[in-house]
User: Fold these one by one.
Assistant:
Number 1:
Amino acid sequence: MQEIKARVTGEWHDPHNGGTYSLQHEGPLRFDLERVTGNKLFTDKMIFEFVDRANSFPSCEINACSESQIFSIKDFSTNYCNLRNLYCGKGDGCVPVLHDFHSYELDVETSKFAGKDKDACIVEPETERTTPMLRATPQTQDVLLGATVDETLACISDNCPLDEFTLQPKPSCVLGNCTSNLAKCLFSSSCRHGVMCELKCTEPLAKTAEAEHFSSLMECMRVHCPGFPPEKTCAALHCGVEAASCAVHSKCRHALECADKCVPGKYAAALAAMPRETII
């Protein structure tokens, strides 16, 4: 417990992309933790529970879990590494703070598509996670996305409406309708990171009163203007009322503008359908 707490609260460097841990609650044999990724975009929550086995081997048993706080199909071992990097020793390539001890894992259970790759736990910080998903020149936001991204976003948009409160498509719908497209996207860092960036933009809006305005606009675009990217003329013709409703609610408008920077083209038609006098 001392070693884990020292890593969380001290000057220890997280070897998995330079994340930042914080201690949210401490009990006699329990820690509740949070980790913010190195690029400050994503937050994961963890629970560590300890069993003191004095005069036996092993002398300490660790039971822990980690969960991403946004919609995530595949985590590339992030949640596993969130936990492992707090107890691994020099033999694992880690840098202890107070105590270097050996550990072995009795059981590792993951959700579907989540990983448990030890080699993924010690990597250099990523520099690409906030890069917009552009096909070529990053100076031009109107450049269309690559074919892989186009197909993935079109499939999700056409088949899976956003939940009214979470503003995320249901994982079962995405997996049921867009598995092959999603698999291609997962192997494209620009596609994967752009989608995660987009979800981060809508996160502050989720479960608020203004979420309804955003979801209504997206549902109108999905029903009346399918495909990627949607046509601006179609959005203006069929979704002008929903766009105007979003425009006059600042959180809805800001979420749309933020997401458009992550996935240029996807939200351009909806933004263009907003009355110009209401856009601040």
Number 2:
Amino acid sequence: MAKTRHGLMPKLPKRNLDSYTIRGTGKVVRAGDCVLMRPSDTGKPPYVACVEKIESDSRNNVKVRVRWYYRPEESIGGRRQFHGSKELFLSDHYDIQSANTIEGKCIVHSFKDYTKLENVGAEDYFCRFEYKAATGAFIPDRVAVYCKCEMPYNPDDLMVQCEGCKDWYLYHPACVGMTIEEAKLLDHFVCSECSHDVKHAENGFSSSSPEADIKSYRFTWGWSQHRLDGSPYAALLQLRNLLQNLVCPVDVT
């Protein structure tokens, strides 16, 4: 058997592969696919990664270069109230793993596409943030907040939509004094602030200004800050656009 002058085996040449077939499932993985990978601790859920590259050496040992997704509880700041159960963060952590550790395929949706799913399957996840593993920083580092509790949107939570709201638009039932069961039976909903504005308008008073104090949630791993970005009116338009294009209205009928 050939050896180098230092007594070491020569480095085996590698070749790029177009795909890899998962053992036992027959599913085909290609670069760009998201996969579930077997953890070293059998008590943990599978790791989620995006396959960047597939390659094989002359002994047919197949390796995959992956970019890891982190679950909220794996991040420096941990899981928070607004994190969805299927939420992932796309990290800047890359690795080389044996293809044999791939257990299956999954789909990591954009936040917008995830909120439009009629049925969320076991293979469905979503991502709305990139995550810097070394520093705990998020991109973007702030998002719009909703409800009186001023929290980012969690697609797992039922929310009711005010039909005349100039401020928060979406509310958690508990934050407006109702149960989830009561919220599901609603045909219409107007928050207390809008009801107050209607009464004032009927009495000849002007309603609240369209320049509402729209806030955002800023991410750091140790603390949060609410801040108004730009002019209040610009922020209002931004929130309206966000609700129309990013957040799927909750069906409470």
Number 3:
Amino acid sequence: MLPSMDYKREKEQDAECEKISAVLLKSRTGEFDLESILFLKLRVLGIHDLGCIGECVNLERLDLFGNNVTNIGPLSSLRLLSVLNLSSNRISNIEPLRSCENLQTLNLAGNVISSTESLHCLVSLKKLENIRLRDNTYNYSNPVCRSASYRAVVLEMFPNIKVLDGERVVGRGSELYQLCKDIDETIKAGSYKNGQLIEHPDCKPWVEDGYWEIKRSNNAIIEEAYKQFNDVLHECRLLNNRATHLISQTERSMSLKKQPKQYAI
């Protein structure tokens, strides 16, 4: 009898993780009110239904990495959301993000977005400055990234973004990086005639093949660890602010109870 009870309980827990519920959100955050949740990390839980997540209307940071999400409709009510990680899911339609007007950083690597037309709904997001559709560190991508013109089209579509696929496109060093890359591609293009490599025994390549490709390295691992550390640090600060607020409210409430009652004669 007991084994069957345990099996039933495990199945119920699995079903609870498959769909986001108020119980799951409260147990993960320790908050009693969904509107009090400011950040949320639900990584690799097998979630396919976002359920009541739209009720977390004050949510600022959301991490749903590594789930089975296909429909992100409930995210449309999260207007204060600034950082959103949807990498490694099964998302093809991102239209609901149109109303997330405070969105600054968006990670969609490892989904099934097929064309740049699917990204038009993000053009109205004026604060969006960091978009990731491809992550070479973990071999995450989208079908849209296979197009030769993908990068140029996205940069033209979002002229104000600062970072695309983890590479800075504006700011210090970005112009020099792009210039060197263009020069290298031009030199390589001039080394071929009728599809055959022209032999120049006295000439050596400027850089080795694959020099400009982003590869996983210790630096990439360190940068990712540093990013995760900053995320945890940010969460700690938010928790501290929340705790300070609650303590202040409690002290105020207790001081009011201690005050002697006054009677008018």
Number 4:
Amino acid sequence: MAEGETQSPGPKKCGPYISSVTSRTVNLMIRGVVLFFIGVFLALVLNLLQIQRNVTLFPPDVIASIFSSAWWVPPCCGTASAVIGLLYPCIDRHLGEPHKFKREWSSVMRCVAVFVGINHASAKVDFDNNIQLSLTLAALSIGLWWTFDRSRSGFGLGIGIAFLATLITQLLVYNGVYQYTSPDFLYVRSWLPCIFFAGGITMGNIGRQLAMILLEVKVISRRVYQHQIVLSLNLEEYIQLKSSHGTPRSSGNVCSTKL
């Protein structure tokens, strides 16, 4: 082998950044952490509204924060938000029905605003009875699903989340962890499943959007890496070609000029 030739190296491995982005475990961890903090923030804000309007009552000895809420409420809501936000895109993938309706952050933010408005209405709007309020909030929650989701999987998961969350809340109130004023649906308010349904749809949309964003980052990172590989291979081929053929020498001064 000639001294000037260079041996072509083997396939290069992805850099640490691209490897971390394309890793499924890291992808899930990033989305889970973001969803957890979003759930904690919404729980603090919305639960504060419910407590200020005396909709929910906690024992005085469990109030331990500036937000006048029990310490366990934000972590529980954050965990539930992370699970719901990760579950929605997972179900979409397994059903083979990718959600493509209104997939932009502006739509997601409007969905969050409508959800906060529904929760605000449950605490501040006065109706003659709870049945009228429950029917109104049910219509608003279904309208939220129709406006920002419209998927069968989203509606089914919303119903399941509302049922399971209402059941857990019934058990908590039954065991005296906290209570609702004027309960009309066993130990809770009859409109509570509507809030849980709207919350499930909202966190599902956020989870879907995060999954789409990280997928786009993953695709772009792979394309950039492939482009770098192509450029490096082309450079190596050019160097090998120059080494094998040699640099042409100038022959302009082979013959001397005779007078």
